[in-house]
Specification:
This protein is an alpha/beta fold. It has 2 domains: 159 residues, no CATH class; 251 residues, Metallo-dependent phosphatases (Purple Acid Phosphatase, chain A, domain 2, 4-Layer Sandwich), CATH 3.60.21.10. It is 45% helix and 15% strand. It contains 14 helices and 12 strands. The strands form 2 sheets. It has a 6-stranded mixed β-sheet with strand order 1-12-2-3-4-5. The radius of gyration is 23 Å and the shape is elongated. It starts with a helix and ends with a strand.
């Protein structure tokens, strides 16, 4: 029954998104959507908690002190797991420790489900794997699953809390003027200011970016998971970013989840960023004003999906003002839009994206890989067109990363 209720809840999200939400203003609908999604997530977590309580609570003798402490630990763990998504509604300048702990518990429970499920699957196919069908029900097996999950979660946490790694790429750009050969771009994406990323981590990312001395800074969406009122202070280090040829921003899907995208665009403009709102700018060489290339950007696909007033993906409008005789670089948050631009044969040379986080946590990375035409890193699409997808400067929600890492990319443009 509980599994059925979760399935019904997921179907209701889809139906509401495509039927009911069509009649609701884009600025309001995601407040309702987040509440609905939260209820479905809590139904899932509650079901998992009951399942694991039955399997884990007998691991220590119920009448012993150790058994009592074990049950108190489990109860605390399951309650905190339920609290993780709730903290997405409460954002502060720097994350609260209790919020980070709750998100870790939430991720750990999902990872434990994967570990136990994998073992159960091996036991189900026991005649092929030589694993006893009864093995997964033994105390030793369950303790092993718990320990593996704790170690995996710990590794993911320390990896996620490490400063962003600088990834260096050199990309040949056709039609780039010789006078602009060697120009550098610092690419940031998916910072996700919110309940687990705040001022201190933002300050670290800005210091790393400034130390790279880039000619251009690009912020490719998903800066925030909250409103300007909540997170303006956390974003303040961005004021210190400056680049000789400018700093540029495009929206990501999470900007629209906040229902505060216009205020974020206004704030970033006050910080000195050029917001590429289906628009472009020509970047002229300082040594020869007749030499230039075009940087253009779009709103995120999410605006298109929800009908957010005044926002959509308009590649034709974004490119208008650029031309086929000069190099052009597109900044768009989602790789799906990068693929759309390539299919439209817009005369561009490079696309900068983010969004995927390189899956952030294995095994949840599998559907991310399958659901995006470009997953992570540099893609040489054809003879003269490239796509680069950042893993993200930080992470969303769960302060864990496995199979991926925090990234700031320094791209050097080479003239052909």
């Amino acid at each position: 029954m509980k599994a059925a209720s979760i399935i019904i809840g997921l179907i209701s999200i889809i139906l509401v998104d495509f039927i009911v939400f069509k009649s609701i203003d884009g600025k309001k609908k995601y407040k309702l959507y987040r509440i609905q999604l939260s209820l479905v997530v809590h139904a899932l977590l509650f079901t998992l908690s009951r399942y694991f309580w039955r399997r884990l609570s007998p691991l220590a003798h119920s009448k012993s002190v150790a058994g009592l402490l074990w049950r108190i630990f489990l109860l605390t763990f399951f309650v905190m797991s339920q609290m993780g998504p709730i903290f997405s509604f409460y954002n502060t300048k720097d994350p609260m420790s209790v919020a980070c702990f709750a998100w870790i518990c939430c991720a750990s429970e999902l990872l434990l489900f994967f570990v136990v499920g994998l073992l159960d699957l091996l036991c189900f196919f026991s005649k092929y794997t030589k694993v006893s069908k009864s093995f997964s029900r033994t105390d030793g097996c369950m303790w092993t699953c718990v320990i593996v999950t704790i170690l995996y979660t710990s590794f993911g946490y320390f990896n996620a809390m490490s400063p962003p790694t600088v990834v260096r790429q050199t990309i040949p750009i056709a039609k780039l003027p010789k006078s602009m050969d060697g120009m550098t771009i610092a690419l940031l994406s998916d910072i996700h200011l919110g309940s687990t990323v705040g001022f201190t981590m933002m300050e670290t990312a800005v210091k790393i970016t400034k130390a790279l001395n880039p000619d251009i800074v690009v912020l490719a969406g998903d800066l925030t998971d909250g409103s300007v009122e909540e997170l303006k202070e956390a974003a303040l280090p961005l004021k210190d970013i400056s680049a000789p040829y400018g700093s540029y921003f495009v929206t990501g899907n999470h900007e629209y989840y906040t229902s505060d995208v216009e205020n974020w665009m206004e704030l970033l403009e006050s910080f000195g960023f050029h917001v590429l709102h289906n628009s472009n700018l020509r970047i002229h060489s300082k040594s020869n004003k007749n030499d230039w290339f075009c940087i253009f950007g779009t709103d995120d696909k999410q605006a298109e999906l929800i009908g957010y007033e005044g926002h959509t993906v308009n590649l034709t409008k974004a490119f208008s003002g650029c031309d086929e005789h000069h190099a052009a670089i597109l900044v768009t948050h989602q790789p799906n839009i990068a693929k759309r631009a390539l299919n439209m044969n817009i005369p561009l040379q490079l696309i900068l994206s983010g969004h995927t986080h390189a899956g952030q946590i294995f095994p949840f990375s599998i559907p991310v890989y399958l659901g995006n035409p470009f997953y992570s890193g540099l893609y040489h699409y054809d003879s003269k067109r490239y796509v680069y997808v950042s893993q993200g400067t930080y992470f969303y929600g769960w302060p864990l990363r496995t199979g991926s890492y925090n990234e700031i990319t320094k791209i050097t443009l080479k003239s052909l």
